[in-house]
From TrEMBL:
Protein name per the record: Heme-binding protein 2
GO molecular function, a single term: heme binding
UniProt xrefs under InterPro entries: Reg_factor_effector_dom_sf, SOUL_heme-bd
Native organism: Mytilus galloprovincialis (Mediterranean mussel)
Family to which this protein belongs: Belongs to the HEBP family.
Any one Pfam family match given in the protein's UniProt record, by short name: SOUL
Domain of life of the organism encoding this protein: Eukaryota
Amino acid sequence: MNILNKSIKSSVLFKFETINHLQASEKYLEINNKMTSILKTVGSAVTGKFLEKPKYEKTSSSSSDDDVEERHYEAAKWVSTKTMGMNREEAVSAGFQRLFKYITGTNENNQKIDMTAPVSTKILPGAGPNCENTFTTSFYIPPEHQDNPPKPTNPDVFIEDRPAMDVYVKSFGGFAKEQDWLSEAQKMTEQIKDKTTINQDYWFTAGYNSPFQLFARTNEVWLIKNKDKE
């Protein structure tokens, strides 16, 4: 009888231990999958490799010098946030943090979304020299979420339907600072022969690399072409 009781007790304990082990394994896998997804997003952001980018085609560059490229971007959805301030670097940093939280699950579906490139920032200058600028920082939404992107839960983050646009693009390398962006934008403006083709209301910066990437960095300045001049 004692042997039978011991056998039954051992069997029950084995079953409980097996169930606990399976539950722990499932929980571990769930956590591991979440961490893998986040690390994949972070890793892509750091290396800049294999990131989805908005679709465009190169168009005529007859109105500018060779190092100013003209592109036609297709209409697409971007996730965006606005920040007011005088300094682009501070504004982009604040905007990036909001958007990164969105793609790592701070949305109505608690859904992870892959990082994309570039991080674009629309700069709407203030009315005067001492007025704050409006910075709209955006991540391109990857193709698999274009039709129905998860709705942001942060009221400062929104889905933007960006229309098709024709842009002048100037690329440069290195770690771009405030003066670098302004200097490159000024150079590009001087290179474009017909100034009436440039939208003077706002302009864009586009960064393709994380702060951890030391070499082969790509930065772009975008000037938008007036629709009536296209």
